[in-house]
Design a protein that fits this description.
Layout (H helix, E strand, L loop, with lengths): L7 E2 L2 E2 L2 H8 L23 E2 L3 E5 L17 E5 L8 E4 L9 E11 L5 E11 L5 E12 L4 E8 L6 E7 L6 E12 L1 H4 L30 E3 L2 E5 L15 E5 L7 E5 L9 E11 L5 E11 L5 E12 L4 E8 L6 E7 L6 E11 L34 E3 L3 E6 L7 H7 L8 E6 L7 E5 L9 E10 L7 E9 L2 E10 L5 E8 L7 E6 L7 E10 L2 H15 L1 E9 L10 E9 L3 E5 L7 H10 L2 E4 L5 H4 L9 H12 L3 E9 L7 H4 L3 H18 L6 E6 L6 H6 L2 H13 L4 E6 L12 H13 L6 E4 L2 E2 L4 H12 L5 E8 L4 H16 L4 E6 L23 H12 L3 E5 L5 E7 L1 E8 L6 E7 L6 E6 L1
Parallel strand pairs: 33-48, 35-36, 35-43, 36-37, 37-38, 38-39, 39-40, 40-42, 41-42, 42-43
Antiparallel strand pairs: 1-2, 3-6, 4-5, 5-12, 6-11, 7-10, 7-12, 8-9, 8-11, 13-16, 14-15, 15-22, 16-21, 17-20, 17-22, 18-19, 18-21, 23-26, 24-25, 25-32, 26-31, 27-30, 27-32, 28-29, 28-31, 33-45, 34-44, 34-46, 46-47
Helix pairs in contact: 3-13, 4-14, 9-11, 12-13, 14-15
Length: about 900
């Protein structure tokens, strides 16, 4: 990613005035609510409004006609036919009423016959009654020769259903250039005050970094294994400071971890989330781009060393870029140091400025407003091909024709969502003359896709003759040029196959195209009955509740006895379930258990745990013979103290990139010895303490041990593990099994994989589905579970997480998965892959914010846990009994009788088909 250079253009100094204007900072009285404000992420989160847009930089090159005064990374908006057409971003979730926002945007123009043109920043406000209003924030006379700054303020007196910020204004056919945009919340007095810092301004007194812009030279800074140098320029004046007078460089680096550092012990507070902004670039060693990382070194009170990754950015030798991330610390560390690292040895890391301050909490989220969802309605035009190939076009120079002979029935996964459906037409598109794998039938659906709706994809597909290997067929979407997977299937015969998948668009997009692709060049492709329709999740929830009632509950008869039968007359009982016995677990890591807030939420809401990294081989033996079980021991002891059951993840990991370098360097004989030592060391130490083990993680996606030790090694891993700890259930574990988006791990292939292991004698006792899923569709997940269920093995979701930047959408995704899991008889447990912000492997997947606030997804999880606890009350019947139907698990019953004080008893409801009779003697 790039950020515009503020000092040079095409290797030459800019004019004094231009330099002054670019150094004049983007104001930062508050946090910028514009995301991807400097286009370092391309046009991600931005939407060209009925025009075209692209991001250019010195690396990509600049279009003809743009003045050399415009350098760095910026957006170019072209093909404008109306003055109002420009670039917009939806900021609904990030603004609130009665707050004053300051706006600052750097803009320019190109392609105009005149040298200047008006450019305007505007708010579009959409209301629930469908009325729309527009508000001009600020206007500037923009130039073809230099950046100009639009400034203004706005304040909302009422909250519209949608707030869109956009830049517009020049006459049609004039290209609009935008370098960066900031919209910050501030008081009225702030709005009239000019700042003198940078995007990473150090004037904020909350910054815990001392001398952050090197105004005092290198005071407070040191090199971490290298030398640091103060610079006012480098490369013969081609590299200049972005914000102040100086920048620092880390030189003579001989290791990737070498860089500039500052100790922040005593200034960083525990249990507070911090946000980090740093402006960086690289120089030297003929490296044009490299990963630059911000890292914390933390020395605990017991002198244990920890290294915590904060953020990374792809830095270049062309421009300054911004690195941004967050962190939080727990416990009472004796030392805390923040440093930069990452590029190859010999490459200098340059730091212009850095801010580390308490992270501002985002404004409360709002659920997305979706009107006229039209659930179950196919958005594909001419899907049944009644009008030939109208609405379709060939992608590439392939040839489309319509033939007869495809299935008339709806594919099963689509029927699971739609229910009874009219028969398909039996017509299909034949795609011939394919000279590239991406060639196939396509259709534009830009105006038919609604934001935040989850769409199911369904089709029958088939391949022609001539294939010499299994062929992949994929429904794909091009969303403003970005590829989105809509589902895929692998075909190795001449039969029709069901293709299913899903997608969701969460950012406004100008162009959305759906197309079917995949087989090798020269192989014909056939497509029938393509359906893309929004799914009514609430309708399926009703069905799942009924299934849950059948499989997760049991009829219970409480039979009361006493020495005096008359004493039971009028007895009243109040029954409360204290815990559902179904395993709901979560991933934890060593840093989590230093947080009392984390432990409190974890132990109250989960009854199983899995360690994120601390049991993996690369953690327990990072260097050969250097064993580290201290972290795992401490986590195990914590779980044991709260009676939390444990899954062991994982003994081995088959994907080569996860294997330690010292293992990869071993000979075959030494590797075999190391594998045996790993098994013996781990399973004898923890014998009987882990209920499950993932023996060899992700065998559908990796083959390191099989490639180096032969096909039998996988079976032997299971056999030896079983010999060392026969009490543990041994699992396979893999990803994308349940969502239809990866043909390598389809349910059919996973089943065959398990059968192959069992036929060779591997004691496979459980099926692990990781569950890292996007836009889940219940019927697709259920279909996978039904197929896997024929093996008769317990199925666990072992690493479930869902991701959306909108908490309400994330909550709905989570509910989809948990209801499907809980309603399926083959599933015996679910583990979330974490729940606490900054401790998740995926962005926007957390249920609890970094400082302990439960978000909408977390509230949904807690609501479901509450729903799945039974309660009942009433009087005993004439036979001194009380009957109810309740979830499996532990119960407490309070008994109120006329003749004696309240009595409390406990009982457990185990799974079973027959009514459970429990005798309670009073």
């Amino acid at each position: 990613m790039e950020k515009p250079s503020t000092n040079v253009s095409n290797g030459k100094f800019q004019s004094e005035k231009s330099n002054e204007e670019l150094k004049d900072p983007i104001r930062r009285p508050g946090t910028n609510i514009i995301l991807n404000h400097d286009f370092s992420g391309g046009l991600h989160l931005w939407h060209p409004n009925c025009c075209d847009g692209t991001v250019v930089s010195s690396v990509s090159g600049y279009p003809p006609g743009i003045s050399a005064a415009f350098s760095g990374c910026f957006a170019v908006i072209t093909n404008r036919k109306e003055c109002w057409q420009g670039l917009e971003q939806d900021i609904t979730d990030r603004v609130s009423v009665d707050s004053t926002y300051t706006v600052c945007a750097w803009v320019g123009i190109s392609g105009a016959s005149q040298d200047v043109a008006n450019v305007q920043a505007t708010l579009k406000l959409e209301y629930q009654d469908l009325s729309v209003s527009y508000s001009c924030i600020g206007r500037i006379c923009a130039s073809k020769e230099r950046w100009e700054k639009i400034e203004g303020t706005f304040c909302l007196s009422t909250m519209p259903s949608r707030v869109i910020f956009y830049v517009e204004g020049p006459s049609p056919d004039i290209d609009l250039l935008i370098r960066s945009v900031e919209v910050s919340c501030a008081s009225s007095s702030d709005s009239d005050t000019q700042s003198t810092g940078s995007v990473c301004d150090d004037n904020d007194s909350d910054n815990i970094i001392q001398n952050p812009r090197f105004d005092d030279g290198l005071i407070n800074w040191t090199g971490r294994g290298c030398k640091i140098v103060l610079n006012d320029s480098m490369a013969d004046g081609k590299i200049l400071p972005q914000s102040g007078k100086y920048f620092a460089s880390s030189t003579n680096r001989t290791q990737n971890w070498n860089g500039i550092q500052q100790e922040i012990t005593g200034r960083v507070q525990m249990n507070l989330a911090y946000e980090v902004f740093a402006t960086v670039r690289i120089f030297g060693n003929n490296i044009s781009s490299a990963d630059v990382r911000a890292t914390l070194y933390v020395q605990a009170a017991d002198l244990r060393d920890q290294y915590i990754g904060i953020a990374s950015v792809q830095a270049t030798d062309k421009d300054w870029v911004q690195l941004h991330g967050k962190f939080i610390l727990y416990g009472s560390p004796s030392r805390v140091i923040i440093y930069l690292e990452g590029p190859p040895p010999g490459t200098d890391i340059l730091l212009d400025n850095i801010v580390v301050k308490h992270a501002v909490k985002p404004p409360p989220p709002s659920p997305p407003l979706i009107e006229n969802a039209a659930f179950g309605v196919n958005i594909i035009a001419n899907s049944n091909l009644n009008d030939g190939t109208n609405s379709w076009f060939p992608l590439g120079n392939c040839i489309l024709s319509v033939r007869n002979g495809s299935p008339h029935i709806l594919p099963p996964m689509a029927e699971g969502s739609l229910g009874p459906h009219v028969p398909l037409s039996g017509r299909y598109i034949l795609v011939a003359n394919r000279s590239q794998t991406w060639m196939g039938p396509a259709q534009m659906i830009s105006d038919r896709v609604k934001l935040y709706l989850t769409y199911q994809v369904s089709a029958w597909v088939r391949i022609g003759t001539g294939a010499t290997r299994p062929q992949l067929v994929n429904v794909a979407l091009s969303v403003d040029g970005q590829w989105v997977n809509g589902g895929q299937v692998e075909i190795s015969d001449d039969k029709w196959h069901e293709l299913g998948g899903s997608f969701r668009i969460e950012k406004q997009s100008a162009k959305i195209m759906v197309y079917i692709q995949g087989p090798d060049a020269g192989v014909d492709l056939m497509v029938a009955g393509l359906q893309i329709f929004p799914v009514n999740r609430c309708a399926r929830f009703k069905h799942l509740k009924n299934r849950t009632e059948m499989i997760r509950k049991r009829d219970v008869i409480l039979k009361f006895t006493t020495s005096d039968p008359d004493a039971l007359y009028g007895t009243y009982v109040k029954i409360r379930q204290t815990q559902n016995s179904f395993p709901f677990g979560s991933c934890v890591n060593r840093r989590n258990i230093d947080s009392k807030d984390f432990i409190d939420f974890f132990t109250k809401n989960f009854n199983w745990a899995v360690f994120g990294n601390e049991l993996k081989w690369y953690w327990t033996e990072p260097q050969q013979g250097n064993l580290n079980y201290k972290d795992a021991d401490e986590m195990l002891n914590l779980c044991k103290s709260y009676n939390i059951q444990l899954r062991g993840h994982c003994i081995f990991w088959e994907v080569e990139s996860t294997v330690q370098s010292w293992i990869r360097a071993l000979s075959k004989n030494d590797l075999m010895t190391a594998v045996q030592n790993r098994l013996t060391s781990l399973l004898t130490r923890y014998k009987g303490k882990f209920k499950h083990y993932d023996v060899n993680n992700e065998m559908m996606h990796g083959s390191f041990y099989q490639d180096h030790l032969g096909r039998d090694i996988r079976v032997n891993m299971f056999k030896i593990a079983n010999q060392l700890d026969p009490t543990a259930t041994l699992f396979v574990n893999d990803y994308h099994v349940e969502d239809g988006c990866d043909s390598r791990s389809s349910p059919e292939k996973y089943i065959q994989h398990i059968l192959d292991l069992q036929e060779q004698g591997a004691p496979v006792g459980g099926i692990g589905i990781q569950g890292h899923i996007d836009s889940p569709i219940g019927s697709i997940v259920c279909s996978a579970l039904d197929k896997l269920g024929i093996l008769g093995l317990p199925i666990w979701f072992t690493e479930l997480d869902v991701s959306s930047d909108n908490e309400y959408v994330r909550a709905e995704d989570l509910e989809v998965m948990l209801r499907e899991v809980f309603a399926h008889p083959a599933v015996e447990g679910v583990m979330l892959w974490g729940f606490w912000e900054l401790f998740m492997s995926r962005e926007n997947a957390h249920l609890v914010n970094a400082e302990g606030d439960v978000n909408e997804a977390g509230k949904r999880y807690l609501a479901l846990k509450h729903e799945w606890l039974s309660r009942a009350h009433g009087h005993l019947d004439d036979e001194d009994q009380y009957e109810f139907r309740g979830f499996h698990g532990s119960y407490e019953v309070e008994i109120f009788s006329i003749s004696q004080e309240k009595v409390t008893k406990t009982f457990v409801v185990e799974p079973g088909e027959d009514p459970l009779v429990i005798s309670i003697n009073l």
